Amino acid sequence: MILPIYVYGNTVLREVAKDITSKYPNLNELIKDMYETMYAADGVGLAAPQIGLSIRLFVVDATQMSQDYPELKNFKKVFINPYIIKEEGNDWYYNEGCLSIPFIREDILRKSNITIKYFDEQFNEYIESFDGIRARIIQHEYDHIEGKLLIDYLSPIKRRLLKSKLNQIATGIVKPKYKVQLPK
After folding, report:
1. Domain extent at residue 88
2. From 36, 71, 87, 141, active-site residue
3. What tens digit of pLDDT does each residue of 106-138 get?
4. Catalytic: 128?
């Protein structure tokens, strides 16, 4: 089922999400719905807060970017209760977008390497390291479960310049092609 994506202004996007257990209700169906929602919006990642759930869960599937980034071929994963253990390497900018902030793209500075502890959908535990574009995708989705948005990385001046666009998103004036949930 395709779910509405919560856009800028919804308070759930600013909450630090809570851990879940393997007994979380309908978890496999939720993961399936998250992938379906992400694909319908042409995204490469989707975090649970983006569908209104303040839980530590996100999915990624960046296969569509594999022509430009061969390392993304078959890069499809579920991250449950993830915690980034280490961020290191070179700082690098990349132009990021976000389904919760449609039509805004900005150059965001992030570290090139991460180590993350997480569980997969069968609740098998992993500690893995990722680099480059894979690390960036994970960091972006991880920010969502920490209550952060890409605009938090921008200078106060840049955020002020985007204020009217952000207000248009929050009030529904800006309408992406996918189903959204406006702030109440």
Report:
1. 5-181
2. 141
3. 999 999 999 999 999 999 999 999 999 999 999
4. no
